[in-house]
Amino acid sequence: MNVILMGPQGSGKGTQAGRIGPRLGLTQVATGELFRAAIAARTGLGRRIKDLYDRGDLVPDDLTIGLVEEKLDEIDRERDLGEGVGGALFDGFPRNREQAKALDAALARREQAITAVVRIDVPLAMLVARLAGRRVCKRCGAVYHVEFNPPRADGVCDRCGGEVVQREDDTAEAVTKRLEIYFKQTEPLLAYYEERGLVAAVDGDRPIEAVTEAIVAAITRHVPSANAAVSPTAGEQG
Ligand code: ADP
Ligand code: ADP
Ligand code: ZN
């Protein structure tokens, strides 16, 4: 099973991917997270993309697709080792037609396909409010909000104790640019997946827990066998 979470910046993809992945035995493939890790580790890739990233521009497709292919190989290896991996949960990828086509091809080479695309709907004014208050854990990437979802202790990650900070690209200018790119290049992809009957829409303007339940229900509707793919360690049996 391979699921794409689709929605504009601030719609809650990262937040929901972190909750749904473990529940359905899906491995999160979050390209933004992978790029942040590369920048923090100052790898060759990280140094190459830092300026693009900070401005809110897309990283070139070849670099992005290469990174996703590596991640798919890793998922295949874990699956072969019987580690209860049921597939990929894409968050922030694909973001344009080129990437969508490359993903289809990469999955086809593995005799797989996209199972469902979940569109998360949130009004624009709410997106802006969410992005202005977004904070993330420097160490594990957990997502918080100063008002809507604060960590228990100020500035400290609930999950790992890491430092909770504002992202370098969550400036007003970079956010505006990222939303523009989303509506111009990424949203049109929904038609590409709708043609194949893969899209399920979910109201994302509700409490985090309610949105999680709606997404799990939407995926399960699209994939009647979704429950069978739940890993034995996922803790959500029966
Ligand atoms: P947001 O959803 O708030 O834009 P992400 O963490 O998804 O945040 O992405 C942060 C940045 O990482 C993007 O602005 C872009 O520079 C880069 N990035 C992430 N995913 C992709 C992608 N699929 N293609 C190109 N660049 C990407
Ligand atoms: P995306 O990955 O789509 O850009 P995030 O998961 O980073 O979105 O969420 C953006 C911000 O909104 C974060 O600060 C997060 O804590 C907050 N948020 C996410 N989902 C909700 C929700 N259902 N209600 C209120 N705030 C939310
Ligand atoms: Zn953390």
The CATH superfamily appears as P-loop containing nucleotide triphosphate hydrolases
| Helix residue percentage | 40-55%
CATH top-level class: Alpha Beta
Going across the major beta sheet, what is the strand order? 2-3-1-4-8
Q: Which second-level CATH architecture applies?
A: 3-Layer(aba) Sandwich
Unreliable stretches (pLDDT < 50, length at least 5) are: 227-238
Subunit structure: Monomer.
Subcellular location: Cytoplasm
InterPro entries: Adenyl_kin_sub, Adenylat/UMP-CMP_kin, Adenylat_kinase_CS, Adenylate_kinase_lid-dom, P-loop_NTPase
EC number: 2.7.4.3
Short recap of the structure:
With 238 residues, the protein is of the alpha/beta class. It is built from nine helices and eight strands. Helix content is 47%, strand content 14%.
Secondary structure layout plus pairing:
Blueprint: E1 2-6, H1 13-24, E2 27-30, H2 31-40, H3 44-55, H4 61-80, E3 88-91, H5 97-109, E4 116-121, H6 124-132, E5 134-137, E6 143-145, E7 164-165, H7 172-186, H8 189-194, E8 199-203, H9 208-222
Parallel strand pairs: 1-3, 1-4, 2-3, 4-8
Antiparallel strand pairs: 5-6, 5-7
Helix pairs in contact: 1-9, 2-3, 4-5
The structure holds adenosine-5'-diphosphate (ADP) (2 copies) and zinc ion.
Domain Adenylate kinase active site lid: 134-169
Region (LID): 133-170
Binding site for AMP: 31, 36, 57-59, 92-95, 99, 167, 178
